[in-house]
Amino acid sequence: MNLGILKYDANTVSFFMFSLGSAILEEYGFRGIVFPKVMQVVKGSSFRKLMFGITISGVLFGLIHFQNIFYQPF
Question: SS3 for 16?
Fold first, then answer.
């Protein structure tokens, strides 16, 4: 693919699209779905809901990425 003076092959474009797409979907999943659902379920003040939402979505996010510690070098 020729985009002006820069030339990209299909693998490079696919790599960046896959990377960008997975990051966007991941953020949407944890911040757009999990976080609001946790805040709906938790009873109490707005501060309590916010803290539980942040904590639960953060822990789930960390657990999903915990597998990377075993399969990728530092």
Answer: helix
